[in-house]
Amino acid sequence: MIKLPFLQIPANSQIFVLTGAGISKESGIQTFRDNDGLWNNHRIEDVASPEG
Fold first, then answer.
1. Tally of structural domains, the chain
2. With 0-12 CB in 10 A as exposed, 13-18 as middle and 19+ as buried, what is 31?
3. Calpha distance 41→52 (Å, rounded)
4. Is the residue at 6 inside a domain?
5. In sequence order, what DSSP letters do the residues of 1-52 get, joined into one string?
6. One digit per residue, pLDDT tens: the chain, 52 residues?
7. Which of 13, 23, 26, 47 could anchor a disulfide with 52, C-beta 3.0 to 4.6 Å?
8. What is the domain range of residue 26?
């Protein structure tokens, strides 16, 4: 664990981080909308409908 002296959070605290879509790309995680993204593995009719 990295020690950050300027960030003092009690041990029993909970942290919630909300990020944008770009954080996954920078981390090497496959995105949904890139040319080789996860959506390219699915037909739009299968996922963008009430049945999907």
1. 1
2. middle
3. 14
4. no
5. ----TT----TT--------THHHHHTT---SSSTT-GGGGS-HHHHSSTT-
6. 667 777 777 888 888 888 876 777 777 888 887 888 888 888 888 888 787 5
7. 47
8. 18-51
